[in-house]
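Sequence only, no structure available. Ideas?
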Amino acid sequence: MWRGAGGGAAIVVTNPATGDVPGLVSDCSAGESDRAIAAASRAFEDWSRRGLSNRVGLVHKLHDSLTDNQETLARLLTAMQGKPLAEACGEITAGAVQIRWFAENVRRARGEIVPAPAAGPQFAGYVPRGWRGSGDHAM
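Reply:
I predicted one. Tokens follow.
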């Protein structure tokens, strides 16, 4: 669920090429960041209980959504960053390709083999490690 910053503070987004202001982004506090991290951790509990095929399918849907909305997203990047539209389209495509790659390659995970404490049949399983955040993009 999307939530804006509770304090109402905002950062003005300025297109460096034109000086236009396409919008504002919430300026969250450290406490709001902590709440967002806690929410991601709670969401991960549900995510980790889902089967591999379900998770892969959801990541494929993310890829498809990026691809289907490429032009709209690229126009947002252009408005926010002042980059040429073709470059912004390429950035969306590159991100979508990486997402598809991760969705497909999770099926080929090798993991670590831990020596068994006893002789007999042994089983190896994969456990989701957790969520990852990125603070380097406004999107």
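The first strand starts at residue 10 and ends at 13.
Hope that gets you unstuck.
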